[in-house]
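> example.struct
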């Protein structure tokens, strides 16, 4: 299920929560809907709400540390803009640079977007063993990138202007 992005009262991205949790926060007047999925409505108790994509807390919450993006397959594809790191064509799979059988983990730095063909060709080998080169190095998304990942957006399009501006900045954490 799609998650909802939670902004602090100061508009800084804090976390993502399930849609259910987001609706509860809005119903309890702890948050307001900043952006909703167009055309979608959700029924909760006796009221009908737009389906929140972004909510903002009514009260400021102090966050003592920078949040890191949690790894996901979808996140890797979005980070790499659905481009195969080996050939640049459209990627639909996630490749472990160091295969899991060689101890490679599900981490941002060990996973890349790959087309099914290259993923199959590389198989259970490292790029060196397979004689394949990475066109770009995997990287850990910044907190700003995480916001886009949370929204499932591969770019700033589709976001309100003020939010897109925040997504373009590295200084998003409190
Ligand atoms: Zn490829």
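> example.seq
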């Amino acid at each position: 299920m799609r998650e909802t992005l939670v902004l602090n009262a100061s508009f800084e991205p804090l976390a993502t929560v399930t849609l259910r949790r987001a609706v509860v926060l809005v119903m309890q007047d702890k948050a307001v809907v900043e952006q909703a999925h167009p055309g979608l409505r959700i029924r909760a108790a006796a009221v009908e709400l737009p389906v929140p994509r972004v909510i903002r807390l009514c009260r400021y919450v102090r966050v003592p540390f920078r949040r890191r993006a949690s790894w996901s397959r979808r996140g890797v594809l979005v980070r790499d803009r659905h481009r195969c790191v080996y050939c640049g064509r459209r990627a639909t799979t996630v490749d472990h640079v160091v295969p899991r059988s060689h101890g490679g983990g599900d981490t941002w730095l060990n996973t890349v977007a790959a087309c099914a063909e290259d993923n199959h060709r590389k198989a259970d080998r490292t790029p060196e063993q397979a004689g394949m080169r990475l066109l770009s190095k995997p990287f850990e998304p910044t907190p700003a990138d995480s916001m886009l990942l949370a929204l499932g957006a591969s770019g700033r399009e589709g976001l309100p202007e003020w939010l897109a501006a925040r997504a373009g900045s590295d200084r998003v954490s409190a």
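> remarks
Residues 19-27 form the longest helix (9 residues).
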